[in-house]
Predict the structure.
Amino acid sequence: MVASETASPTAEERHRSVLGNPETGIRAVLFDYGGVLSESPFEAFARYEADNGLPEGFLRRVNAADHHANAWAQLERGEVSLDEFAALFESEARAAGYSVDAAAVLGLLGGAPRPAMIAAVRRTRERFLVGLATNNFLSARPSGGEAGVSAVLDLFDEVIESSRLGARKPEPAFFEACCRQLGIEPHEAVFIDDLGVNLKPARQLGMTTIKFVTEEQALGELEAELRMSLR
């Protein structure tokens, strides 16, 4: 007899595979990182713009232009190196009328963690599968101290990173991969993100979506969807 090369699921894996609320059909929650579990970089962007004589919202407009193929999109899909990104991004900024330091802009991405939201992940995983759905680049993971970040990542059943997957939010392939890795269907997931552009395709696939505006608002909406207290 030839032994199977596929390992049998552990007791913990079997337990987690049946988590969820049978009344609502929700089995999993997908959390964005920057802007949800940590502070948004947009405030840091605004400070950089003010300090460097850039128009308000300039960096976000550069990122939004041709957002499926621009420098930022290529970086988050792991298609370009940091040096290649810097050249492309600075060229895009110049084409829009201003000069920027791409390395300095990347340095603005680390936001302080939001303890209440991280605690909500910990509570959620008691009854539901939890996934981290993040756009990132290979040489950078969420900031906040190596030990602290590792502790947060360890809370998740699956960590889905755009730079490793080769697809990014808001591409449907990203959300399809999230479902595949968690072993769920889209209608069995709640997805929380701070950007509406990321929520629309997830909702079109069948996910329940929550736009993060404030901790109080987001936690209240998530508690209503999960029918449990997170605080």
